Prior knowledge:
Structural class: mainly alpha
Distance between the termini: 57 Å
Radius of gyration: 34 Å
Amino acid sequence: MNGKVDKKSQYDEMLKELYHTELWLYSCVVFVSLFTTWLIVSCGGGLGWIFVLCAFVATYLKNSVTRFYRNAKSDISREIAKERLEEDDEKVEWLNEFLRRFWLIYEPELSKTVIQIADGILVASTPSFLDSLRLTTFTLGTKPPIIESIGSYPRNADDVVEMDWRVSFVPNDLADMTKAQLAKKN
Length: 186
């Protein structure tokens, strides 16, 4: 409960800060419209000119208030999002689905590359008592790395990005493989 009270007071403080500058502007508009009304009356203007002035002032104030609420809502939403980013970790199922699909294409090519690099090193550094030393089979597994969650900290400097990534990698998890996949693997 105390956390909600603190957040509410923080948002109230933000609104006061935003509204403070608008309050002076609205006060100036009221005083200028009063002065203009006095000027119209003293120059012999009729009630029609006062209605025209009132229409201009009302339109200006309506547009200003609409703009103020839109900007205040945007600023407060941004602050709420920043706090939510700090408090909650983002679930990244969409990225895991991408990795799962990409892994089917990328893993065989990456394994081939590792075999080529390692085989070249093994051939170059084969001891004299061996005829040859080769790496013929290598795999990074059937399952891709899984990103469990991402936490970010947006309250840092503008040129600093701080994030916590929770990643797990079980390369040969056989638990959810079908019989056909298990037969193909063996």
